[in-house]
Design brief:
CATH class of the largest domain: Alpha Beta
Strand content: 15-25%
Number of helices: 15
Shape: globular
Strand order of the largest sheet: 5-2-1-6-7-8-9
Length: 387
């Protein structure tokens, strides 16, 4: 008889669909994904990008799923009342799961599932929160009490890295209740077995006016305060003032800081900007650059999966110490550098250090490191808990 796993998650996400496919391939597992944001069947309105996002890669193939109707008057995955599914518990019960894996607790229906099934069916949780942005004070103490209450409703948590594990331990979970299931991307989609992506990137790089002597730094993501792209803009401008003329910056994305960025890069021919690019283009986009930088200052940069993607494209990475993946992927791995968040001078120092080394060798190391952070390990971790 197959072990049945119910998964509760808001909407199809490119970083999780491959995991569900792998689990569905297991002969001893029957998985069903319950999507709780029925309004997101086709596309998701992303408030930060400021547009509807419709991914151009398949997210619903080769696994069993159901969109449970969401009756929220203001639907969304970033607020407590944004997910209200009166039929969710009933539908999960009809599936007769041997375990339930919940993604995200801070939505009404997800938390109700955790509370209802605790003690009846093993309740598992997947999350990537960290303590990186935590400050001392009464609000933090109050939040810790609330989160201890929340996590008292689960039996196990699947943590994604060191900072994630530290977070769960701080909120009452014990070592035996924690299972490592690394944050991963679809590495195979970003690897370049034929060399086609590199050739396409070379052509695109030429169209953008870059030469072989140029060192291109890439920022790809939302133009928002959390990711702090303006710090990187200011670092590149400052380095240019110091005669680093071969240093170029490519900004890719959209978001609320766009007008401010446009003003900051006006008359800067060494800084170019491209709009949001869909998933099928990203393996090429990363390869335009020589270095990928994620200069986040938080709060909320719990991991930074763009770092995984850049590393899978054999690109060295430069991240701030507020990026959740820094201790796992970057520290002591010879794949790039970590700088102090918000520190312009440290960012410049680490940039100089990187482009004065062999970037191709560092990029090769990056690809080798990220190959170990894959969906197979997540699938194996879940499978081992089901048995």
């Amino acid at each position: 008889m197959k072990n049945r796993l119910a998964v509760v998650i808001t909407h199809p996400i490119q970083y999780y669909a491959p995991m569900f496919r792998l689990l569905a391939e297991e002969p001893d597992i029957e998985v069903k994904v319950f999507y709780t944001w029925s309004q997101a069947k086709e596309k998701v309105k992303d408030k930060t990008f400021g547009k509807d996002i419709q991914w151009d890669i398949p997210l619903l193939n080769d696994y069993n799923y159901e969109f449970v109707e969401n009756f929220s008057k203001s639907p969304g995955s970033n607020k407590w009342n944004g997910i209200e599914n009166p039929e969710l518990i009933k539908k999960i019960k009809e599936f007769h799961p041997g375990a339930i894996l919940v993604f995200g607790w801070n939505m009404k229906s997800h938390f109700k599932v955790m509370k209802y099934f605790k003690g009846k069916v093993p309740v598992w949780f997947r999350g990537d929160s960290t303590l990186l942005d935590e400050t001392k004070g009464l609000k933090t103490l109050a939040r810790r009490l609330v989160l201890k209450y929340v996590y008292n409703n689960i039996d196990k948590a699947f943590y994604v890295g060191r900072e994630s594990k530290r977070y769960f331990l701080a909120h009452g979970l014990k070592e035996k209740e924690l299972v490592f299931a690394p944050h991963a991307i679809d590495n195979d989609r970003f690897f370049d077995a034929t060399g086609e992506y590199e050739l396409l990137a070379k052509d695109w790089r030429g169209e953008l006016g870059y030469t072989n002597e140029d060192i291109v730094i890439l920022f790809a993501g939302k133009f928002e305060q959390k990711k702090n792209p303006l710090l990187l803009v200011n670092a590149i401008k400052s380095l240019h003032d110091e005669n680093e003329s071969n240093l170029k910056l490519l900004l890719l994305g959209n978001g609320p800081l766009e007008a401010e960025i446009d003003t900051a890069i006006r008359d800067c021919s060494f800084i170019k900007k491209l709009p949001f690019q869909n998933q099928s283009k990203m393996p090429v986009v990363y390869r335009i650059a020589d270095i990928f930088c994620l200069p986040s200052k938080g709060p909320g940069e719990t991991w930074g999966l763009a770092v995984n993607e850049a590393m899978a494209c054999s690109r060295p990475v430069l991240v701030s110490d507020k990026v959740g993946c820094a201790p796992d992927l970057v520290q002591n791995n010879n794949v790039g550098e970590i700088f102090e968040s918000g520190n312009l001078e440290d960012l410049k120092i680490k940039l100089r250090k990187m482009y004065q080394t062999n970037l191709k060798s560092t990029g090769k190391n990056a690809k080798e490191v990220i190959a170990e952070w894959n969906f197979n390990k997540i699938s194996e971790a879940i499978k081992s808990e089901l048995q």
